[in-house]
Write a structure and sequence with these properties.
Number of strands: 22
Length: 549
Amino acid sequence: MCTTPVKTYWNNWGPRVGLAWQIGEKNVIRAGYAQVFTQAGGVGGRGGAANGTGQTGFNVTAIGRPESTTGPDAGPSFYLNNSADFTAAGIANTDLFGSGFAYPAPPSPGLAAQTLNTGFYLDASGKFQSASSVGYADPYFSGRAPEIEMFNFGVERAITNQMTLALNYVGNESHFIVNSGAVPSGENGNARGYWSNELDPVYLATLGSVADSSGKAPLLTAAATPANVAILHQYFPNASAPAPFEAAAAKSSSASIQQLLKHFPQYSGVSDTWGNVSNFSYNSFQATLERQMSRGLSFNVNYTFAKNIGDDSTFRSGFNIPAAAISGGGHNWKQDRIDRSLTTDNITHIFHAFGVWQLPFGKGHIGNDSRAVRWLGGGWQLSSIYSYRSGTPIAVTWGSNCLTAVGECMPDKNGSFSGPARINGKWGRGPNGYQAATLGKVQYIDKAAFATPQSAGYEPLIGNAPRTHAYGLTGPSNWDWDAGLRRSFPIRESLQFVFEADCIDVANHVNFSTPSSGNLVWSPTSTSFGTVTGASGNRDWQFAGHITF
């Protein structure tokens, strides 16, 4: 019998409603709402969807008989069919691997299963047992499919018989979105600190300045010896301190106070396999001017102004954060609220323009009476596409030794910094202009804009810089212009030769990539912080000719 911790959620209703109202001959109002669902986590489409948490001892693979392709017993390795025809033929089968197949017995949880991957204790011989990590499958969130509510309202007006202008508000609210939990510097940055075995920052706020029993080292990272546990109990009298853990601390400093204070101290880490708890809020204004083909010209020009806010990436803590744990103080933060900001894929401005122009020469146009003009200038068609998008918000992290048990390391905004954070001119430009040699060599973000977080005594506090868009920093904008020329040469009534010439990146413009996450890890001595290492774009001509008949 197969079982799963994923609980089926039966309330995924997907209503859709739309409205179109014509006012007069030239105006139309449109509105719509839809709620849709997609796949992720325990409902498929993401890591862990097929093999769950992957814990050894909780599944057994049943290997069926091999497929037979010849002889009287030819057939697939398994099939399920008890229809009337199969039953009448005597080959009905409701056994997955065939009649008489011996299925393996399901494993029974025992002592070994209960202690699987645990550590921070001494075995019977007094040897220290190292711990491993485990995966947790949340029974509720694993069954919640990503949910997207989409809504729009707009007005469209006919300017002429061939041209329309549309103005629209378009937005969506997304919930139960996949939370990456993976952070550049390797710490656990999951949104749910309890289920990813993070250290609650309340301990950092209280114990960050407390010394261990030697009086020379921080208590949090010291071994959980009886003497250090006694100091811990002065501040947190009800903190649990199992005797086996204290005994292990005598053999290994990895059995530390901060490990003891985690919710699952017996594991080195916990993976929140299906913790799909992230949220997005997208709002945009969209304008479109469109002309249908008339007098040889058609075009579409559209512009989008948008804002996308969410908690979609790394987290400096998956718990409530008290003000005393944040560098510079401030106020208390509810879980994940400090890291809700512009998303790393927020694009504020998007502009597109494309069109087709049938050149007005030849038959029925300019030069209609000239055979030479009809032959040389008639039938040409010019097309073009231009695209522009603004840069995405930059996410700066801290590459130093913060208390890794808490979450993502973040720097501070430098309170005494007054200059622009963006320096050294346009992205990708160096002392000698735009050259490949500039890549990875010029820093475009001023390191002085950020600072090391204040110290709690022994341990640094949680950095106060925004998760994204500090000082309004965004990556490079990108634009591209492509064009094409086409003409059909009639050979006879049903036979034509078509010539095409296309130019990709007409302006031979280089687009630079946003600095990679590794080049956005701040330290006061970094030489790669804020550098650009990627670029793309070069003019490309393509010619083609073909015959149609």
